[in-house]
Q: What sequence folds into this?
C-alpha cells in the first residue's frame, strides 16, 4: 500500500523524497507493545484560575494544562488489551495524473479511462485510536466543510472493513488535512485506503493487501491505486491497477497549483460531451 510503505519502509515512488523526509517527525513512533505516541504541534488547552486564602491577602495564580490527546490515548489503551495495537498514525499521500484519457462512456454511467497515477509527497496525517464505542466511529478534522459522518470515505472504509471481516472494533479518528479538496488529487480516496489498511492492522491483519485492494473499489474508483507501489497504469474506472517503474526521477521538483475553485469529480464526468472516446487512445 502506498501509505503503509511511506510509514513502514519508505519504499514508494516520490517525486520529492527530501520533502517527505522533513515530514517524518509528524509520524508515529512505534513501540514494541503495538501502541504509538502521537506528536502534535497543537497547543494544549490552558485554564488559568486565581486562588486566595481568606487569612492572607495574597493571591496565587494556578495554571491547569489539559491535553485531550493524552486522555484519548490512555482510554484507547484500555479498550482491548489483547489487540495488536491501540493507536496508530499514518501518512496518507495524494496523487497526480501524469496523463488522463477518457476512452468510453459505460452503460453503468461510469467512464472507462487510461491514466498514469503517481503519488507525491503532499498528504494528510490520519490518527487512529481504539474507541470504547460498540456502535460508531468518531471522526474529527482540522478543517471546516469536511463531512464527519458516513458520507466521509474514511467512515465508509471502516464500515466496509467491518462488513467484510466481522470485526467489531470502532475508532476515534483525527484527520489532519493538508490535501485540498475538489482538486483531483485523490485525497479522500487515499484517506479511505489508509483507513482500510489501519483497520486491518488493529485486527491482526485478517485480510491480505490484495483483498483490501479489491474491496476498496466498492468505495471509489481511485481507492485501489493507493494499495499500489506508488506509480501505476490504471484502466477500467481506475480500479484496474498495474504497477510500473517510476517514470520520473524520485527527486524531481514539482510545483502544484490549486485554484480556489473546486470541481466535483462526478460533475466533471457528468458534463463531458457525449462523444466517441476511442480515438483518444490513438497516438
A:
Amino acid at each position: 500500500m502506498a501509505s503503509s510503505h511511506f510509514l513502514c519502509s519508505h519504499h514508494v515512488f516520490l517525486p520529492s523524497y527530501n520533502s517527505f523526509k522533513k515530514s517524518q517527525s509528524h509520524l508515529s513512533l512505534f513501540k514494541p507493545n503495538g501502541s504509538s505516541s502521537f506528536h502534535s504541534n497543537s497547543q494544549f488547552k490552558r485554564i488559568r484560575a486565581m486562588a486566595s486564602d481568606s487569612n492572607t491577602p495574597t493571591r496565587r495564580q494556578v495554571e491547569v494544562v489539559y491535553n485531550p490527546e493524552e486522555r484519548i490515548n490512555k482510554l484507547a489503551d484500555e479498550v482491548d488489551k489483547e489487540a495488536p495495537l491501540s493507536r496508530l498514525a499514518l501518512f496518507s499521500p495524494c496523487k497526480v495524473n501524469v496523463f488522463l484519457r477518457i476512452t468510453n462512456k459505460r452503460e453503468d454511467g461510469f467512464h472507462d479511462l487510461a491514466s498514469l497515477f503517481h503519488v507525491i509527497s503532499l498528504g494528510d496525517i490520519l490518527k487512529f485510536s481504539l474507541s470504547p464505542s460498540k456502535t460508531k466511529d468518531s471522526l474529527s478534522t482540522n478543517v471546516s466543510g469536511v463531512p464527519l459522518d458516513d458520507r466521509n470515505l474514511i467512515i465508509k472504509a471502516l464500515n466496509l472493513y467491518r462488513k467484510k471481516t466481522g470485526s467489531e472494533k470502532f475508532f476515534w479518528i483525527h484527520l489532519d488535512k493538508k490535501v485540498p479538496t475538489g482538486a483531483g488529487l485523490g485525497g479522500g480516496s487515499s484517506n479511505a485506503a489508509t483507513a482500510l489498511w489501519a483497520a486491518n492492522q488493529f485486527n491482526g491483519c485478517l485480510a491480505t493487501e490484495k483483498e483490501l485492494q479489491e474491496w476498496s473499489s466498492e468505495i471509489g474508483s481511485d481507492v485501489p491505486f493507493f494499495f499500489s507501489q506508488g506509480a501505476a497504469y490504471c484502466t477500467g474506472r481506475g480500479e484496474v491497477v498495474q504497477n510500473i517503474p517510476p517514470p520520473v526521477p524520485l527527486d524531481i521538483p514539482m510545483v502544484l497549483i490549486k485554484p480556489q475553485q473546486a470541481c466535483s469529480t462526478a460533475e466533471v464526468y457528468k458534463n463531458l460531451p457525449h462523444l466517441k472516446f476511442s480515438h483518444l487512445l490513438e497516438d
The mean pLDDT is 76. Strands lie at 29-30, 36-37, 45-52, 59-66, 87-105, 111-131, 138-141, 170-176, 231-235, 240-243. Residues 154 and 195 are 6 Å apart (CA to CA). DSSP finds seven helices and ten strands in the chain.
